[in-house]
Each structure stands twice: as C-alpha cells, then as structure tokens.
Write a sequence for this structure.
C-alpha cells in the first residue's frame, strides 16, 4: 500500500477497489498478522470484491499494480526506498530497463519472474515469455485437504503457446490436452464429441453467469459524426434495432441451440434480477414495428428501401466493430446482424479489429456500435463495467466512464440517466445486501427501459464454458460457475484436481 499504490510514479492510476466517492481508503498495520482497511465512506461491497478478481493476489492483479499484497522481502531490492538509487539504476540498466519503475514492474510479475515468492498453489519455473509456460507446485502453499494432505495435488503444469485458436482447438480434438476451458470454441463441440472416445476425453458445458453472452453496445458518447451520434442516442432507434434481431437464428447458427434468446439482464437466480416481465423487453422479433420506428425518426429510403442520411446525400451507414481472436465468434454474430438490420433498411459496415487497436478506439471514443460479452455483470457492484459509467472501458459510455474515473478532468459529463445510474451504484455500495437488492434491480430496470446495451443470446457455454477434460484427469466438476469475476476455472478449485493413472 505504502510502497506501490501510494506512489504516483509507480502506480499513477489507483486500484478501483481502493477508491470510494470521497477518495482512497487506508491500509494500516495492526500487528504482525493483521491489517486494517478503512474507507472514507461506507463500503459494504468490499468483502464481495475480495471474493472476486477486483481484489486479488499477485497472479490476478500484479500486472496492473492492483494486487492487495506483494512480497516486500524480495521486491525491496528493486525499490528506491530500500535500495540505493545508484545501485538500483545500475541494476535497471544492466537488465535493459530505462529506470527503476519498469524494472520493478517486471520483477513483480509471477508469470514472468520465476524468482518471485508467491502464496499461490504453483510457482513459475519457466516464464510465460517462451513457447511453454511451466509451473510447479509450491512447497509452501498454505492449504490442505480434509485428510491433512497439502495441496495442490498436481506437481507440474505445462501450458503451450498456440498462436492461432484453431491450433488450440485441434489439439483438444486430438486429445493432446489434459484440461482446457479457455478458447475452446462452441462450434467445435460436434467434432469434439465425434473424437471423444478415441481421444479419451469428456466435454463439459459451463453456462455463462453473466446473463447474456453477446450484447450490442450503443456508444452514447460518440460524436465524430453528428448524424450517427443523434441516432445512437435515440431510444427509438435502439429499440428498432433490438426488435429487428432474430435471436432464434443467432442461437441456432452461432450458439448451436445451447443458449436462450433474451434481453440484457442477469439470470433469474441472481439477487438483482428485475423480474420476468423484463426477460424479453424489445427482444421479440418484430420487423414491422422496427421499420415503423425507423420511419418515424424521419429517415428516407432509397429505391432499394435502404435509409439515407438526413444531413447530406448518401446512404446511412452504421459501423459495427468486433474484436478478432475472441473466444466467442463475434464476427459471425456481426455478419448475421448486418443482414438482419439490412432487412429493415439499415446499412451496416462490420469492422473486425485487432484487440489492441479496438481498445485504443474504445478509449478514444471512436466506436459507434460494438459487440462484447458482459460476463460478471450478474454481480454489478463487483463488476459494474457493463452497467454503470465507471472507467474508460465502459463500452456504451466510455467518455463518461473516463470523466468519473478522472474526477472530471477528462471525458464527458454524464447525462441525467447516466448520473442516476452512477448515483444508485454509489448508494448501493454503502448498504448491506438486503438493502442493496432493490437498488440493483432498479439499475437493471433502467437498462431494460433505455436499451443502452441490447442482449441477443445468453446462458450458454460459448464464452470459456466449453471444457475439455481427459478421462484420467479428475475432480473437475461437471458444472462450475462460469464468470471472469470468479476467475473460472479458479472457482472450480484447480488445486484439488488430480491425475488418476
């Protein structure tokens, strides 16, 4: 806390879990084994954050300097508070770094530095920078099973780099992987079943807990093209495009019938579910109503029935952006949406972006409409990014998210509805769960009414939920919570997996 988080040169952007409305929380030492964490405002969700990825250890959060602990006895040799500046500068230059800050950042990463002590069940013996990432069991891991045997059971983990998702999936089909849950494509499930007996593996399906596996985000901050910006901010325009989506077709062709067509809302068994009356809000296919809503916006059609711009000559074209290399086949969903929206008169340009370039465009507020998975939003206080303008990666309001994150120094101020969402979110964070539930339901109702985010298909295993497991690899549950907030498959307790040879 003192040596990393409070140093602006090392950690200019403070961890989200440490901030409340009034500023940064404090961490102080009580005794050798106890720390006290205090916040300037009531922060009832902090314990929930501790159960997920926002507050976590070295493996999950070191790369963004947000881990709640680091090994001082090791890292002090790379820190100017404990090591002479001349000596540290010399070490940094010898290691090829321009200063102690990037040198320290490199040394604190457990997946890149085998010498770094860690509390996790495995330690790095071959860093992630090569063709193989190799881990071995940590002899000092703190957990034991019910019989007193020290965990983890598995002695060694080898992960191989696959430059192409297709290569990874071919390895799984051939039975070359003991277990894999990430980047196994849903489209490969039929061929996986065909080869399961020969490959001696089983296929598990873990449905996503986020409620919707592929959502359409309409950027409410976009302003590069005033004509497009005005339409994106029109609830009738968003409603029309939602009504024009054939979710049954998307479910059958892309999700192989494993999902459920539904609006953007959490699963019914989660506390903030707003009610079954919102399950299909503007999510039933109705092209006639979609055309009527679009016509009422004053858009004119050409001879082919395609809408034209109102401000100048030319076809009205919306750009729909998707990231390449994702677990879910967003490209194919986008291509279906392109055809479905053209059926009601809207021309769509699908743009496939490299993830780095996509994120640059998102943070620069250049994206009009995009597709993404809102996994984690089922617990909106622990993972608010799809629902509330929180950071610059809030895909339906990135500039407003930046405005809040920067304290109004950059970005765009919120609209009244955005402010209402943010106010509710901040109020809920001060309340215990039973009092927070109706506030969470109200946030979801606001989204159902405004359609800033439009759902397509949900509750499928398409996003990191297709799990391939060798028959001799045991203790992997048939179903486990599938949510990045819970760091799946970490929530399935991999330290208890074992080989039954």
């Amino acid at each position: 806390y003192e040596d990393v988080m409070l140093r602006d040169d090392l950690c200019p952007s403070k961890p989200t879990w440490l901030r409340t409305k009034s500023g940064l929380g404090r961490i102080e030492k009580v005794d050798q084994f106890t720390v006290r964490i205090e916040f300037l405002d009531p922060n009832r969700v902090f314990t929930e954050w501790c159960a997920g990825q926002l507050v976590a250890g070295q493996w999950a959060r070191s790369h963004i300097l947000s881990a709640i602990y680091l090994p001082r006895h090791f890292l002090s040799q790379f820190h100017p508070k404990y090591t002479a500046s001349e000596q540290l500068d010399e070490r940094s230059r010898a290691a090829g770094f321009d200063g102690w800050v990037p040198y320290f950042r490199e040394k604190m990463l457990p997946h890149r530095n085998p010498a770094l002590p860690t509390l996790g069940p495995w330690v790095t013996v071959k860093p992630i920078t090569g063709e193989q990432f190799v881990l071995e069991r940590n002899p000092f891991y703190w957990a034991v099973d019910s019989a007193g045997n020290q965990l983890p059971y598995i002695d060694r983990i080898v992960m191989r780099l696959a430059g192409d998702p297709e290569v990874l999936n071919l390895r799984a089909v051939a039975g070359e992987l003991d277990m894999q849950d990430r980047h196994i494509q849903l489209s490969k499930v039929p061929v996986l079943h065909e080869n399961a007996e020969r490959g001696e593996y089983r296929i598990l399906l873990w449905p996503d807990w986020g409620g919707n596996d592929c959502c359409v985000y309409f950027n409410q901050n976009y302003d590069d093209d005033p004509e497009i910006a005005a339409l994106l901010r029109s609830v009738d325009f968003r409603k029309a495009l939602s009504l024009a989506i054939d979710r049954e077709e998307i479910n059958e062709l892309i999700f192989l019938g494993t999902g459920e067509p539904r609006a953007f809302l959490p699963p019914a068994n989660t506390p903030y579910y707003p009610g079954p009356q919102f399950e299909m809000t503007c999510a039933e296919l109705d092209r006639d109503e979609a055309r009527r809503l679009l016509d009422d916006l004053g858009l004119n059609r050409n001879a082919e029935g395609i809408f034209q711009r109102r401000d100048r000559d030319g076809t009205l074209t919306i750009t729909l952006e998707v990231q390449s290399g994702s677990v879910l086949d967003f490209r194919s969903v986008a291509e279906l949406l392109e055809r479905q929206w053209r059926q009601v008169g809207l021309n769509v340009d699908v743009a496939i972006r490299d993830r780095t370039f996509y994120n640059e465009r998102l943070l620069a507020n250049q994206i009009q409409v995009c597709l993404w998975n809102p996994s984690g939003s089922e617990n909106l206080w622990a993972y608010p990014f799809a629902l509330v303008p929180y950071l610059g990666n809030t895909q339906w309001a990135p500039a407003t998210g930046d405005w809040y994150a920067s304290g109004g120094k950059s970005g765009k101020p919120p609209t009244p509805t955005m402010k209402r969402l943010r106010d509710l979110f901040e109020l809920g964070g001060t309340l215990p769960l039973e009092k927070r539930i109706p506030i969470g339901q109200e946030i979801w109702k606001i989204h159902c009414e405004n359609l800033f985010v439009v759902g397509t298909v949900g509750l499928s295993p398409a996003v990191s939920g297709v799990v391939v497991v060798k028959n001799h690899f045991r203790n992997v549950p048939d179903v486990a919570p599938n949510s990045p907030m819970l760091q799946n498959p970490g929530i399935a307790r991999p330290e208890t997996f074992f080989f039954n040879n």
Summary: The mean pLDDT is 93. The longest helix spans residues 433-450.
